[in-house]
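To illustrate this point, what follows is a protein record of this kind.

___
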Amino acid sequence: MNPYLRKVLDLINNGKMVNTYKMSWIKSIVESCEKSSKKNIHFDELSRLIFKYYWNQCIFFNLNQSNNRQKKPNIIQIVENSIKEYQLSRGFKKDTFIRIENEIDVPVTKISSVLKKDVCKKFLNLGGKVNKIYDYDLNKREIKLYNPRVLRTYSEILYNSINYRWTQELETMDGSPRISKKIKGVDRDQSPKRGNLNKFRKFIEEENPQRKCFLTGKQILGTPSIDHVIPWSYMYSDDLWNLVYVLPSENSSKSNRLPNKKLIDKLKTRNIKLLKTLKKKRINNKFTNELELSINNNYVDKFWIGFKG
């Protein structure tokens, strides 16, 4: 095993935890490395990602993230205050962070202060010894990773380890059942039912009148199947930006695994072409607006990377 990867996994699997800060911290570092190869990462960048993780867990499940049930961790209090403000102005809606991130001001400075005080140095402590995977400058609120390429290359392994350790700790701290499902997003036993996708056909066909299979490129002679590129079992929603034509045989044999980057890039290109076509034909409705919103906010990448974590 790569020596640097081993050190990171040791910290994830064996570090002492009194709350879940350490797991949100390292998860944000790994996600940041997926987006950029830079070694220096500012706490503010990590704070926004950490806010996202806790927003989704708090707004849907209100999981206890600490051994101290009398006082919630500071970051949780910060996130919950933001949720209250959002819901008061939106009629108590429950939305994932990605869908509403441009509608709220993320208090990155407050979270960054907690990371500086309670997380950055403590994460490196392993049984009384320092297991260094980065240098840090607390005045600049910045870390310098020794090997971001390893974190990016082995991101899926790291995400699995982080989620497993986070789950273990929550089972003790929260005592709630089915933690493993909740930490990833939505409890499937209470998930929404699949909708009728036929209403999307006329829009998909505007960009793909020849009815070519998104996965194989072959022309579909019969009735095309409509497929979620990012599987429905992750999204629990039907969105035009995530729906394409595929051969029925491909749809029935396709697993629920996340697509590779090649398909994700292909979907992003398709969405841009589809939006141009719809606007050229002056087709303006909620589907067009949602498609444009997804492009402007880079939903494809954000959901894909988020679900990988």
Remarks:
- The chain has two domains: 3-187, 197-308.
